[in-house]
Amino acid sequence: MKKTLLALAMFGILAALASGADSAKKILILHDELPQMKVLAKRLEAEGYGVDFVTTKEKLPPLDSYAAVVVFVHGALPREQAQAVIDFTRAGGRTICLHHTISSGKRKTPIWLDFLGMDLPAGDLAKGGYKWQHDVDLVLVNLAPGHFITTNKITYPSKATYKRSDVDEPARERDSVVFPGSEAFINHQFTDGADKTILLGFIARHPALGDKVWMQDRGGWYKQAGKGWVFYFIAGHTAKDLENPIYQQIILNALTWTP
């Protein structure tokens, strides 16, 4: 009888450990645009993650069974979904926001922008107004060369001369990677001071953006939110963006980075 009870107890412990391991490798992708996320899911699954999808038109599953939530929402983000992701993050979860997850459609969900510490000002571009522009050769520039997220298993293919927007220092050459035919978001404004750690800047130019070459420290960042962490990376307009192995590795590094 004792051996049977011991065996049952051991089985329960092993089952709990297995469940915990599964939870630690489960990712939920909340999206309203699938092709790019199929590419990302394929890489995540190759790394041993289990990936579930849910759209903005569906009910979210309980988030406490996931290690991380990836948010890739082009249009409006329903308030109840935004609040669920916010609660998940503050309780200790990890949320990775990609590309247009910070774009004009989210103005309809102010709690989301407040949570991220972001503002998308209306008005003229030259006076700080927010603007998106597609068909841009988007250059991501590594602004944190000593950080795990931007360097682990990564070799950048090119260099770019970059003048930081948020730090007063001379322009200098930095490691970079180019995303041809992508989309840039100009004048993302921070509302939370120095809460964010900046990882990546971007360079963008396009006739519709005037003669200026735009360089802004907004290509990638993270910040603590309660007991959890939220990350943002600007690339992702096309499936080709997500096929870039450097970008895939940056996202994987954000999932595995230990604060």
Describe the structure.
It is globular, with a radius of gyration of 20 Å. It has seven helices and twelve strands. By secondary structure, the chain is an alpha/beta fold.
Q: Low-confidence spans: pLDDT under 50, at least 5 residues? A: 1-21
CATH third-level topology: Rossmann fold
Which radius of gyration do the C-alpha atoms yield?
20 Å
Tell me the domain tally. 1
**Which structural class do the helices and strands define?**
alpha/beta
Strand order of the largest sheet: 2-1-3-4-12-11-10-6-8-7
Mean of the pLDDT scores?
92
The DSSP helix count reads: 7
Order of secondary-structure elements: HEHEEHEHEEHEEEEEEHH
Beta-strand residue percentage: 25-35%
CATH class: Alpha Beta
Q: State the distance separating the first and last CA atoms.
A: 46 Å
Task: Report the major sheet.
Answer: 10 strands, mixed
Gross CATH architecture? 3-Layer(aba) Sandwich
Shape: globular
Summarize the structure.
By secondary structure, the protein is α/β, with parallel strands linked by helices. It has helices at residues 2-24, 34-46, 79-90, 110-116, 148-151, 239-243, 245-256; strands at residues 26-31, 50-55, 68-72, 94-98, 118-119, 131-142, 158-162, 172-186, 189-190, 197-204, 214-225, 228-233. A 10-stranded mixed β-sheet has the order 2-1-3-4-12-11-10-6-8-7, with helices on both faces.
